[in-house]
Amino acid sequence: MAIFKPKEAPVQVDFDHLPRHIAIIMDGNGRWAKRRGLPRTAGHAAGAETFRTIATYCQKIGLEYLTVYAFSTENWKRPLEEVSAIIGLLKKYLLESIEKMEKDKIRLHFFGDLDALPPELRELTVRTDDISTRYEGMQVNVCFNYGGRDEIVRAARAFAADCAAGKRRPEALTEEDFSGYLYSAGVPDPDLVIRPSGEIRISNFLLWQSAYAEFYYTDVLWPDFSKEELHKAIAAYQGRSRRFGGV
Ligand code: FPP
What we know:
Blueprint: E1 21-25, H1 29-35, H2 40-61, E2 65-72, H3 80-104, E3 107-111, H4 119-132, E4 139-146, H5 148-164, H6 175-179, E5 192-195, E6 214-217, H7 227-238
Parallel strand pairs: 1-2, 1-5, 2-4, 3-4, 5-6
The structure holds farnesyl diphosphate (FPP).
């Protein structure tokens, strides 16, 4: 049973049968800012606000897992000012989360190569990860310095190292075993992947994990993405027939 059902929710959302895991590509921050004559960094600040609102709401309606794409392995190509702003927003979010975790019970986890982060931020990710183990609320996975191909290559290297160490046999590897080498080890695959901003591509996001995910695209830019937009995405998902390759 859903823990909270909004009164104003559209009738087509069945809050008792939500997807377990929603993943979001938070796209369109730059265009949102440009349309307002603002710097791109203002778009990211607005996007971070939307992320807070949506994450809080997902926790409230009883979602189990929310994964967001915050910074890709390719995003380092952006101007230094923009990269610094995104890193600053993550830091701000982590500091706030540490304050609120006891009340929110949201568990924070990270997918990506965090070694490339400034040491202070790296330390904050370790702290939030540690504190999260005390709680049992929704798990939010923040993909930072994340790339789907990079994740698969790292997993392959780790598996090869285990084989070389005699802990594993290549011929015995199953898909399930391999999943255990990914950043997402232990997390169920996303049921629904949402991409706002009108782009219809995967952009190196959860390549392995989204094999059977349902996709939802909307022209709405991420900073304008609202609870109503989330309802529409969930309703669209609930209207699909998932066959996982069967009939
Ligand atoms: C894509 O929009 C967005 C990003 C690369 C950054 C997303 C970051 C945040 C929402 C804030 C930090 C995250 C957290 C978890 C606090 P874009 O810049 O590519 O937009 P455009 O396609 O319109 O240019």
